[in-house]
Design goal:
Layout (H helix, E strand, L loop, with lengths): L1 E4 L3 E5 L4 E5 H6 L29 E4 L3 E5 L5 E5 H8 L14 H25 L2 H10 L4
Antiparallel strand pairs: 1-2, 2-3, 4-5, 5-6
Length: about 140
Amino acid sequence: MDFQLNEISLIINNKKLEYELPYLWIRDNCHCNECRIGETLEKRFMLNSVPVDLKPKSVDIDENDINIRWPDDHETTISFKDIKFLKKPRKPEKNYGLKTSSQNITIGMTFLRIMTLLLVLFLSLLSKEQYALKMLHAFQIH
């Protein structure tokens, strides 16, 4: 299976489908016991605890799973079945006679990447006390 690493994403091409998975999304969706509570799947891991420019230390892909080792030596395994499941809408799609195009999917994935980066940036700013206090002051209601 062919794959490429770019600045923000892992791109996988398995002849049938191509996946572009942002590193932050992969790390945020780790299901190991360190990152999730097994019984409820609630998150233990906080995305703001890793750098915004996170990149894998190593990647190994087989026909079923993607295995990633991060710079802090944390390991994430995500299956292609999980990726397919996570791509499905959580509610029925409303199709008003419009066809879904690959261009719409690309635009949606770009939007998702931008929103993920904005969220991480915002959370990293909040983690710095001086910026958090300035933001609280700016949003204070008089």
